[in-house]
Amino acid sequence: MEPDLFTAAAEDRQEKDPAASPLAVRMRPRTLDEVVGQAHLLKPGSPLRRLVGEGGGGPAGPSSVILWGPPGIGKTTLAHVVSRATNKRFVELSAITAGVKEVRAVIDGARRASGGYGKETVLFLDEIHRFSKAQQDSLLPAVENRWVTLVAATTENPYFSIISPLLSRSLLLTLQALTDDDLRGLIQRALTDERGLDGAVTLHEDAEAHLLRIAGGDARRALTALEAGAGSAIAKGEAEISLETLEGAVDRAAVKYDRDGDQHYDVASALIKSIRGSDVDATLHYLARMIEAGEDPRFIARRLMISASEDVGLADPTALQTAVAGAQAVALIGFPEARIILSQVAVALALAPKSNAAYLAIDAALADVRAGLAGPVPAHLRDSHYKGAQKLGHGQGYAYPHDVPGGIAAQQYAPDSVHGKRYYEPTRYGAEARYADVVERVRERLRGERPPGSKDPAP
């Protein structure tokens, strides 16, 4: 059976009985102009504009679009807007539950609708990165022949999670996280719009600041909390949603970062800098403030993972493992118990030896690549397994390190343009001191280099 369609009839029912739908559903954008954020994708003549038929008769919109971005920023919403604006059939699948059978059913239905009724189909495929290579391959004929307009969403890097043939036939659009200003505009619209609260209540400035903090960049979360606060205020006969009323409605106490209510990033920065400075007590203070202020625990866990590599690095190679394990546990458990896990990770990072050598190394390498210092891969390192490679000289002269005493083959690995560059400069802190000794011995063996400042042996 073909998957259920998102039909106009369902929206009509919502419009006729708004009270039956959550505020987040009622405020779902109907046009691209109502979409919050993503201004870089909504300029006149942009691919999304052309996809919905705007652009004054210019080139047709793309037949396949991949939306890449974090959760809760409107990927599904954009797909619904495309369907509504173009009056196309809309079929929604999730790669978590669907397989090749369901995809083929949609494609067959799209071909019948296109041939028999002249009705084009938009296929929205959520979590496409969860599809296997074979499942993604099944989409290629439909995209190639424009049997469907594919709008796929992913939270993972598509260059690693989506097959090259599909990626090359698609337009990749990167969605950006919603800012506080984006959410503030959405909240004000929901307060006054007839589809929303229609002016029934107003929102106090302190309550708005708290609402933005607990939303964590998620539009649905912001509207859900706003609806709870409005319901509580109306029940008490109040015309304004106060901070106290909102706190009671969402059952979360407000912790002011500062009097201006704009210290979200300042406190996050202070947490990381306290870890970097090895002040475990300050680290726990800022962590507690973030938890009490209603920060998303996943946001905190992400910051800790970054710090584990940026500030600790190879001075304690287990730091990243600890941070990643903590993030996974936080995602599975959630608050209130997640506070214990976050505390363990933060304390471990604060007390670990510190090194930013890996961080500096990749930035130095990236700077050279961006400056054009890429160059061809040396011929002896190129792939020699395909037919005709040996005729091109690929792989000839390659020394297999496992056949060499010590396991280090003295040969050139980097392109000529960066041969001899030293990107990684390890510190002598913690476990990285061992790496510092190793890297110098390896460089001397590979390139004949001696450590900086060392003297040649006496004759």
TrEMBL record:
<dbReference type="Pfam" id="PF00004">
    <property type="entry name" value="AAA"/>
</dbReference>
<dbReference type="GO" id="GO:0008047">
    <property type="term" value="F:enzyme activator activity"/>
</dbReference>
<dbReference type="InterPro" id="IPR008921">
    <property type="entry name" value="DNA_pol3_clamp-load_cplx_C"/>
</dbReference>
<feature type="domain" description="AAA+ ATPase">
    <location>
        <begin position="61"/>
        <end position="182"/>
    </location>
</feature>
<feature type="region of interest" description="Disordered">
    <location>
        <begin position="1"/>
        <end position="21"/>
    </location>
</feature>
<keyword id="KW-0547">Nucleotide-binding</keyword>
<dbReference type="InterPro" id="IPR032423">
    <property type="entry name" value="AAA_assoc_2"/>
</dbReference>
<keyword id="KW-0067">ATP-binding</keyword>
<dbReference type="InterPro" id="IPR027417">
    <property type="entry name" value="P-loop_NTPase"/>
</dbReference>
<dbReference type="GO" id="GO:0003677">
    <property type="term" value="F:DNA binding"/>
</dbReference>
<dbReference type="InterPro" id="IPR003959">
    <property type="entry name" value="ATPase_AAA_core"/>
</dbReference>
<dbReference type="GO" id="GO:0017116">
    <property type="term" value="F:single-stranded DNA helicase activity"/>
</dbReference>
<dbReference type="InterPro" id="IPR021886">
    <property type="entry name" value="MgsA_C"/>
</dbReference>
<dbReference type="InterPro" id="IPR003593">
    <property type="entry name" value="AAA+_ATPase"/>
</dbReference>
<dbReference type="InterPro" id="IPR051314">
    <property type="entry name" value="AAA_ATPase_RarA/MGS1/WRNIP1"/>
</dbReference>
<dbReference type="Pfam" id="PF12002">
    <property type="entry name" value="MgsA_C"/>
</dbReference>
<dbReference type="GO" id="GO:0006261">
    <property type="term" value="P:DNA-templated DNA replication"/>
</dbReference>
<dbReference type="GO" id="GO:0016887">
    <property type="term" value="F:ATP hydrolysis activity"/>
</dbReference>
<comment type="similarity">
    <text>Belongs to the AAA ATPase family. RarA/MGS1/WRNIP1 subfamily.</text>
</comment>
<dbReference type="GO" id="GO:0000731">
    <property type="term" value="P:DNA synthesis involved in DNA repair"/>
</dbReference>
<protein>
    <submittedName>
        <fullName>Replication-associated recombination protein A</fullName>
    </submittedName>
</protein>
<dbReference type="GO" id="GO:0005524">
    <property type="term" value="F:ATP binding"/>
</dbReference>
<dbReference type="Pfam" id="PF16193">
    <property type="entry name" value="AAA_assoc_2"/>
</dbReference>
